[in-house]
Amino acid sequence: xxxxxxxxxxxxGINTLLAQDKVLLKTRKLLETKQWAKARSKAESVxxxxxxxxxxxxxxxxxEFEMSKLDxxxxxxxxxxxxxxxxxxxxxxxxxxxxxxPRYASWMRDITQTNNKEAxxxxxxxxxxxxIQLYKNSYLxxxxxxxxxxxxxxxxxxxxxxxxxxILKTVANWNFGxxxxxxxxxxxxxxxxxxxxxxxxxxxxxxxxxxxTEMGLQVYPSNTLLKNNIRKLxxxxxxxAAKQGKNSTYIDVVNRSLNYFPTxxxxxxxxxDYYLSKLATLTKTKPWKEADLMLSxxxxxxxxxxxxxxxxxADPFLIKDSTAFLYQCLDHFLRRNQQGSIVxxxxxxxxxxxxxxxxNEPVLEGLLKSPPASISRKLISMLFSDAREDYPKNKKIAQxxxxxxxxxxxxxxxxxxxxxxxxxxxxxxxxxxKEKNLTTQRQTLLFQCTDSALADDNLYGAWRYFNRxxxxxxxxxxxxxxxxxxxxxxFSIRYAGTRIGYTTKNGVKKAATGWDGNSNLCxxxxxxxxxxxKVIDRLNYFRQNAGVKQPLALSMDKVxxxxxxxxxxxxxxxxxxxxxxxxHQCFTREAAEAAANAQAILEPNPAQCVTIFxxxxxxxxxxxxxxxxxxxxxxxxxxxxxxxxxxxLLDLAPTxxxxxxxxxxxxxPNRYCPQMLAMPKWTFSMDAPLxxxxxxxxxxxxxxxxxxxxxxxxxxxxxxxxxFKPSALLAKKSKGTTWQVKVTLKNKKAYSYSVTLI
Length: 758
Description:
This protein is an alpha+beta fold. It has five domains: 26-184, Serine Threonine Protein Phosphatase 5, Tetratricopeptide repeat (Alpha Horseshoe); 263-356; 360-479, no CATH class; 499-657, CATH 3.40.33.10; 661-758, Immunoglobulin-like, CATH 2.60.40.1220. The strands form four sheets. Strands 8-15-14-10-11 form a five-stranded mixed beta sheet. Strand 1 and strand 2 form a beta hairpin. Helix 3 packs across helix 5 (101-124) and helix 5 runs antiparallel to helix 6 (128-142). The termini are far apart.
């Protein structure tokens, strides 16, 4: 019984399949005989009952495609091409193994091509919603990367960024992977990389921007948009790295930049500057092992660049020949007078040129015994100094230097060489203490160097050499003559020459500082370099004429903070050590820091402020003058707005010349003082117990001038100070008038000096 039932079911099944085959064959026949409508109708009736009837989807798609090309089916209610695309997608998605595809391949290709054309037209016409649907069909029909990428672009253009970026990321990764595997070249698209690079760069997501930009440039190395973006990203990275100093991170960014822009002048110079800066630092002290490694890296970088065909006349270090490269390094440091670097590179260059392993003691002996005329005296001087440091027991080299010096100074030389002779003479005095002529010659050279510095209007150098000269106790008349010469020229250049004038506009008088800010807008602005240098020169005029050896330098950090403080104070014209946002509309933390440490004055002319501070009429303690003349001061800053100036003068650093001020004093006025600057209150300070000191002032007749004396303890400054006020109106005396000052300490030590008006 069971066998009979099974047989009946089998017969029914076979009959059903035969019936289905007959329908399929009939439907195929309709398609083959171009009875498109009937073929479509038959296929549609089958898939309505059985959605898994794969071949009928193919037939339906083919029939609808053919109908879409006929005029009689166009313009009706049914868009047959749209329907054929849907049917084709159904066919492809249900026919996962591609079993039925070959029979209908020609139609499917035609459908896909037509769909792609319509998609491209829609995209070109900015019909992005339609392009999205069409490209979806193209991708589902073919799995084509380009179709998928265009789908992502369409979403992006249609402001559906989330969907679009997701697709574009996928396509970018596919493209990059295919490029890495050297496959699928026809599927590459530049647009996904460009869109992702721009999107993340504009959003400030720089890591993502860098990732997609670099991926894109691997595939499309000449793409202009991507190259512009990578330049922006690299410049940003370079600026950020530079804030941490020129370290390994910095040079990594530079070298990455040169991978993309191998001939770029800026990146080439950044690379060169990195290595030259490192070499300058590493060659200051010995041993030079690290410098040798740095030099090797430097040369290798430039050599590899030359081998790749990199050429840029702005980079003189693009040299293949190692000896020529070493000479270029030597020339660079010679021009900058960096002794350690000069000697280091000369030794490497000389060894390479001579074909020897190194410049050792015997080689130096031979070189310095009779120095070649082709080597400058400047370089020979440095080699002697270096050799004496390396081989202090070598008497021959010491004698060679003395012989060289005598020959060198036997004839007049240019003023530039006088400075070199002085440095060599200083060393020879130590090596040959019994050579009395050297001591005399050192003084002569110091006078010459002081004179040369004055001739060049280099007052900083003139005072430096003069202080060295004074320590040797030379002829007093000659020294005093030089002192007056410096004082007169210094007044002309660093006082009178640093005057900042005033302008009047709409009846309002303003200091011509060049300030470009605006207090009404809380714009701190800045002062031009010319103003900054004038003011620091005037500060140092007073310092160095008063007897302070170390001049002040500008701190740009303090300048910025003082400038913000000046703007903060400007609207109210009221100063406070503790300003607050509630009381000062232009409040900043930097301005508050300056307010806590600096001195403000209702005078917009910073040069004039320096003179006012030195006069210090309103301060019994004379803290402003003492701050200017404090020998421990190293850095100063100031800022000016339309009605005030803020000076940060107080510097609590210990003085580097503490021993000097145990026997040398700082006084204003000092030896030669301009008549206009002989202020009513005089000051005297040094590193000594000045409390209970006696001050005696006498005029040219020897008569005592009554004085009022007060003593000020050290406080935050380096030294105690005596403030004394002669009763005579000294500033009204004629030029050439001289007073004698004698300060006698409680321990009976006395210090005498004269003050002459010039």
